[in-house]
Design goal:
The protein is mainly β. Helix content is about 10%, strand content about 35%. The protein binds 2-acetamido-2-deoxy-beta-D-glucopyranose (3 copies). One 2-acetamido-2-deoxy-beta-D-glucopyranose (NAG) binds next to strand 11. Keywords: Signal.
């Protein structure tokens, strides 16, 4: 990944050298100061929650909260927007940065990010209500080609999974938009990532109920659903499942008798590589897409991809169900994100709490805290990640 830093220089100058003409200035977009990697999106929990776009110092350049909504909404969407849900769980760069996808309050939604067009900026262009048995715990969304959007239900029943909708901008907002696909069988989904190269939707969840309500342990699972560009549909039948090698209880953090199994928390593509990093309630793992296997865990992963990683609190230890004493310094990375220049951000929740109160940013191996005081679940780079283009 570090090799990616400045590798664009090579791309710029190689063809020029061949033609033997004098070098031109890099395109404005490619100059380091203009690369997308100065913008981060962070969700601040609260009533109201606030979505913030900010720089590496934490200076906010754009934000979204429900008070910004001036358009009329159908009744259920209005109710869910103005609910007392404090969530800002997922945050996605969409439509080349002109939209933000988010789980916000009791909505899953897509809003305009067009500061250059103030009249349309911040408008909701698609939304569903979470105030029902399907989406009450939804934690993840991702754009698919064909103006579709996939939403993870993040539940524990056999029929939980991914619901696909049409998020076309020209469709009117309605309380119950038609479901285009209902893909069942993956529980506790916490991450969804589009894979342009292989035309797949990757989802991170568990193979059985993560809350312990099934008679078997739940294993963390990465599932790749093939996307058919003729029908614009994901295939459930041809999905490939990759289970994490061990199932772990969560008693170390939550105490004796706590029934939940460890599951994935974030699914993070490595810039310019066919790799994912997966964080869980317990640790961090490296998944090699070409090998179809988890190949590394723990400090082997942080040493390789996240030099300078520091545990945010010193109380992350306890006893597991078998009575082993464990230190879990890399546990509960609820959200993290790698930039091609080697910088990264992460949010580690407080031990025995579901969120943290700052975002860590690491540049050249040195960690700083930003957004101090905000109650945060996730922060991500706001841009098109090299090697991982989003659907157009
Ligand atoms: C925002 O930017 C200004 C000017 O560059 C700087 O003085 C200030 O400390 C920044 N704010 C934060 C939160 O870092
Ligand atoms: C999806 O399908 C399952 C069964 O196939 C059903 O139980 C569930 O209610 C459906 N989900 C939605 C959101 O309609
Ligand atoms: C880390 O990598 C070393 C060297 O490849 C290996 O021996 C060790 O088992 C790895 N540790 C983990 C936790 O994967």
């Amino acid at each position: 990944m570090l090799g990616g830093y400045l590798s664009w220089l090579g791309l710029l100058f190689e063809p020029l050298a061949e033609w033997d003409i004098p070098p031109i200035q890099p395109q404005a977009r490619l100059r380091p100061e203009n690369r997308p990697w100065n913008t981060i999106i962070t969700g601040a929990y609260g009533v109201p929650a606030v979505l913030k776009l900010h720089d590496r110092k934490g200076n906010v350049s754009w934000s979204w909260q429900r008070e910004d909504v001036t358009q009329p909404l159908p009744p259920a969407l209005e109710r869910c927007l103005w609910s007392d849900a404090n969530d800002a769980t997922d945050l996605k760069w969409m439509r080349s940065g002109k939209s933000v996808g988010a789980v916000y309050s009791n909505l899953v939604m897509v809003v305009n990010h067009t500061p250059e067009d103030p009249e349309n900026d911040k408008k909701i262009t698609w939304a569903i209500c979470r105030d029902n048995e399907f989406f009450w715990n939804a934690h993840a969304l991702e754009a698919l080609p064909g103006n579709r959007v996939a939403v993870g239900t993040t539940g524990e029943r056999p029929w939980d999974g991914i619901i696909v909708y049409d998020m076309s901008m020209d469709k009117e907002l309605v309380d119950d938009p038609p479901i285009l696909q209902n893909i069942t069988g993956l529980r506790a989904i916490h991450g969804l990532i589009w894979d342009e190269e292989e035309q797949l939707l990757w989802a991170a969840g568990t193979d059985a109920a993560a809350d312990g309500s099934d008679p078997v342990p739940a294993y963390g699972a990465l599932v790749a659903y093939p996307f058919n560009s003729e029908t614009n549909e994901l295939s459930q039948e041809d999905a490939k499942w990759y289970l994490m090698p061990h199932a772990y209880d969560q008693e170390t953090e939550w105490g004796s008798g706590y029934p939940w199994w460890v599951g994935p928390h974030d699914l993070v593509p490595v810039p310019n590589e066919r790799k994912f990093l997966v964080s869980t309630d317990r640790d961090i793992y490296e998944f090699d897409i070409n090998d179809g296997a988890f190949i590394n865990e723990g400090t082997n992963v942080t040493d390789k991809y996240m030099p300078g990683f520091e545990v945010t609190t010193d109380d992350r230890h306890g006893f597991d169900r078998a009575g082993n004493y464990l230190e879990l310094p890399r546990s509960d990375l609820k959200g993290f994100s790698l930039a091609p220049d080697g910088s990264y951000v992460y949010v580690q929740s407080l031990w025995r709490f579901l969120r943290g109160f700052h975002t860590s940013i690491v540049e050249n191996g040195v960690r700083r805290k930003i957004m101090v005081g905000d109650e945060i679940y996730r922060s991500r780079w706001f841009g098109e990640l090299d090697g991982w283009p989003k659907p157009r």
